[in-house]
């Protein structure tokens, strides 16, 4: 048995070279030990989208995200449909006091508010609203499609 430590942040060349192999070990472990279904979201099925109506990905996914938010709020929190419209969604999870900022020594995504979208077969099944700040990442809110509650997406998001 050989054990080595590789730097993950910032990613070293060794980390990058062994990432896929390490990920496959992790995925198999999750399926065997924790009984995760094989279709649980993977790294390729999560995208970080800046919360900005100027961003094409945010604009193109807005209606789907807002509809998912309404479905979640009504099923999980028993909100009335009138409390879950696009205006309420925008006010609650899209309007942010944070200014987007890209600094040379900052993360590739920059600082600001983001929607971390979890996709399955091209469909958004969960959204984690996060603020990326200079010294931390703040999880603001998570909503998911109740039809996929068996995937424990809140736990998955927190660990991610």
User: How many distinct beta strands?
Assistant: 4
Number of helices: 4
Order of strands across the biggest sheet? 1-2-3-4
| Overall number of domains | 2
Task: Please state the overall shape, judged from the principal axes of the Cα atoms.
Answer: globular
Structural class: alpha+beta
What does this protein look like?
The protein has a four-stranded antiparallel sheet with strand order 1-2-3-4, with helices on both faces. The radius of gyration is 17 Å and the shape is globular. The protein has 160 residues and is of the alpha+beta class. The protein has two domains: 43 residues, no CATH class; 116 residues. Strand 2 and strand 3 form a beta hairpin. It contains four helices and four strands, in the order αβααβββα.
Topology record:
Elements: H1 13-33, E1 46-50, H2 56-76, H3 86-94, E2 112-120, E3 123-133, E4 136-144, H4 153-159
Antiparallel strand pairs: 1-2, 2-3, 3-4
């Amino acid at each position: 048995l050989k054990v080595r430590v590789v730097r993950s942040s910032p990613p070293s060349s060794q980390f990058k070279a062994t990432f896929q192999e390490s990920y496959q070990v992790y995925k198999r472990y999750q399926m065997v030990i924790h009984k995760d279904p094989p279709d649980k979201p993977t790294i390729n099925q999560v995208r970080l989208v800046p919360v900005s109506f100027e961003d094409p990905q945010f604009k193109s996914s807005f209606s789907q995200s807002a509809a998912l938010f309404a479905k979640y709020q009504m099923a999980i929190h028993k909100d009335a449909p009138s409390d879950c419209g696009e205006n309420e969604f925008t006010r609650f999870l899209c309007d942010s006091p944070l200014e987007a900022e890209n600094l040379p020594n900052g993360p590739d995504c920059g600082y600001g508010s983001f929607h971390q979208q979890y996709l399955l077969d091209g469909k958004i099944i969960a959204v984690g609203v996060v603020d990326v700040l200079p010294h931390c990442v703040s999880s603001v809110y998570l909503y998911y499609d109740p039809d996929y509650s068996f995937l424990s997406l809140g736990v998955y998001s927190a660990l991610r």
